[in-house]
Design goal:
The complex is a heterodimer of chains A (about 160) and B (about 425). Chain A is α+β, with helices and mostly antiparallel strands. Chain A has 3 helices and 6 strands. In chain B, about 25% of the residues lie in helices and about 25% in strands. The chains are: A alpha+beta (about 160), B alpha+beta (about 425). Bound molecules: FE2/S2 (inorganic) cluster (FES) and fe (ii) ion.
Chain lengths: ~160, ~425
């Protein structure tokens, strides 16, 4: 089933907005993108069972709130100041999922400057899987599952918004 | 080529201070790999990581690659990850299950327990070629205590019992949080890279002094922390302890006994939410002892040099270089306690690992320490805190001090100096 062009553009625009808010550490605006049944998830493996195994991040809506409060406290030293970042999304695929939801996937490459300590330029990459929902005419994010290429390798601090 | 330097450790490690070069000098790092990680005992893994015959898991002891396997006789083996022909790292996969390890270079084949199975074109190896002598090499000494695997790469040296000493009780306390008396480390490991010296991790992990400062952001974001926590002047009577042998503890039992509520170490979850666990614990240990376990919780302690019993998490480190270390974390799952384990998984994600609410600050501080230590002055790191109020605790027989005191650092360095300077060939 092919989706109307304007719907595809609308969803892409949402993904780009979400990426830019994360890149610019615009915490409140980023948090406002989520639904109440949110899941922000960075597993160690794509097929990992969260009931049996540990993930880097497995935030429900409440924990996303804690994460944002912590980032905004002024004392989250691993993100003080926030890492300068830019990411590129590509290879975007979108499919409808039920009446008012969509599934989307996008490859990403993210350059992150660890300005708080080493000033290393960290290079993150992988594929992000999204579940989006139409709410009151607009789009909201239900699931963001980030599949890092090196999720099961030693990785640097992941306290920014990925 | 320059002569090898002999580093005089007695001049660098004192009771109240240690020298900055201990964290930055590649020569020190090289001595540490040899004298602490290769010749001494360290933590390698847990038997629950290889539950079935044929299971294997790669690890590193100091700088050397090893494989933990379970052989067809259901015994755990610890093998060097090196083909006995010309040295190929024979197992490249992180973990899995197999009957054999086949070297991809010339095809030498070994059973999962390390024994040699076959050699292509064996005639060319000569008449005296003895397959039984060409198995993958065993790590010289391995000991398992309640599932925890420790090893030394030296055939001779201090015994495992002498190494572990009284700290055996810390492992007992962790395991006795399970009604079955057994823990399970099968939930996978988060791996966190620090651009810092490895010693900052054991020093930091039982450091009560940094918590209110370095982790202020979490205290502000959640209300689970009591206002007296980690502040002896406000009545936190938690205790820092020297268990001997470089093993150290931050013991919260006394703080928890102030209210006597169970599960304060577990986000204060009401006992009513884990009725089966409470019942099974009482059945296993009797009401009083079970209650004590549930009030005091699992230990927060370091087993020298690389194991961190982090309450409901297990963590260990693998040194990479003087300026780099990787820290691993997994939930301490308790056999017979599914209610606890379901929460433990989520608690580990909240507290430990590169994406958590706690460890990123520890990594950031360790990295900033490493950057600061590039400055030549002052030469020393100060370790005086609490030196004048250490006391022998009658109840435990352990040298102890207040929650924010650096007795834990001093205990670490005492053992460090012992190993680094008593080594044969080391300068007196
Ligand atoms: S190096 Fe393994 S078979 Fe030659
Ligand atoms: Fe910490």
């Amino acid at each position: 089933m092919s989706m109307p062009e304007n719907e595809i553009r609308e969803i892409e625009a949402f993904l780009f907005l979400e990426a830019r808010l994360a890149d610019e550490s615009r915490y409140d605006e980023w948090e406002a993108l989520w639904t109440e049944d949110a899941l922000y998830w960075v597993p160690r493996r794509a097929d990992l069972d969260p009931a049996k195994e540990v993930s880097h991040i497995y935030d429900n809506r409440q924990r996303i709130g804690t994460r944002i409060r912590q980032l905004k406290s002024g004392f989250r030293y691993s993100q003080t100041p926030a890492s300068p970042m830019r990411r590129v999304l590509s290879n975007i695929e979108i499919a409808p999922a039920g009446a008012d939801e969509y599934e989307a996937g996008a490859n990403f490459m993210l350059m992150e400057l660890a300005i708080q300590s080493t000033r290393n330029m960290n290079f993150w990459g992988g594929r992000t899987l999204y579940r989006l929902r139409r709410v009151d005419g607009g789009l909201r994010m239900v699931v963001k599952k980030i599949l890092l290429i090196d999720a099961d390798e030693p990785i640097a601090n992941l306290s920014f918004l990925i | 080529m320059g002569m090898q330097r002999t580093i005089v450790y007695d001049a660098l490690v004192h009771r109240d201070r240690v020298h900055g070069s201990l964290y930055t000098d590649p020569g020190v790092f090289s001595d540490e790999m040899d004298r602490i990680f290769h010749k001494g005992w360290s933590f390698v893994g847990h038997t629950s990581e290889v539950p079935n015959i044929g299971d294997f898991k790669r690890r590193q002891i100091g700088l050397q690659p090893v494989i933990i396997t379970r052989n067809p006789d259901n015994e755990v083996r610890l093998l060097f990850n090196r083909c006995t022909h010309r040295g190929n790292m024979i197992c490249a996969k992180e973990s899995g299950n197999t009957a054999t390890f086949v070297c991809p270079y010339h095809g030498w084949t070994f059973g999962v327990g390390g024994e040699m199975r076959g050699v292509p074109l064996q005639n060319g190896m000569g008449k005296d070629f003895d397959k039984s002598a060409m198995g993958l090499a065993n790590v010289p000494r391995m000991r398992i205590y309640r599932g925890f695997i420790f090893a030394s790469l030296a055939a001779e040296g201090p015994s495992f019992d002498a190494y572990l000493g009284k700290a055996r009780k810390l492992l007992d306390r962790a395991c006795d949080m399970s009604p079955d008396g057994e823990v399970d480390l099968s939930a996978g490991w988060l791996k966190h890279r620090f651009h810092a010296n490895w010693k900052m991790l054991p020093e930091n992990n039982t450091d009560g002094y940094h918590v209110n400062v370095a982790h202020a952001s979490l205290m502000r974001a959640v209300n689970a922390f009591s206002s007296q926590a980690f502040d002896e002047d406000k009545g936190d009577n938690s205790v820092t302890r020297d268990w001997g042998g470089g093993h150290t503890e931050l013991d919260f039992a006394a703080r928890y006994h102030q209210t006597g509520r169970p599960f304060q170490w577990f986000g204060g979850v009401p006992a009513a939410k884990m009725p089966d666990y409470v019942a099974r614990m009482e059945q296993a240990y009797g009401k009083d002892l079970a209650q004590q376990h549930m009030i005091e919780g699992p230990p927060h302690a370091i087993l020298f040099p690389n194991l961190f019993l982090a309450e409901l998490n297990i963590s260990f480190l693998i040194p990479i270089s003087a300026n780099e270390v990787v820290q691993y974390y997994t939930p301490l799952l308790l056999k017979g306690a599914p209610e606890v384990n379901a929460r433990a998984l989520r608690q580990t994600e909240g507290a430990m690992g590169p994406g958590s609410f706690l460890l990123p600050e520890d990594a950031c501080m360790a990295e900033r320490n490493q950057l600061g230590l590039a400055a030549q002055s002052p030469e020393w790191l100060d370790l005086r805190r609490g030196l004048e109020r250490e006391y022998m605790d009658e109840k435990t027989g352990l040298l102890s001090s207040a929650v924010s005191d650096e007795i834990t650092n001093r205990s670490f360095w005492k053992e460090y100096l012992q190993l680094m300077s008593s080594f044969p060939g080391a300068a007196a």
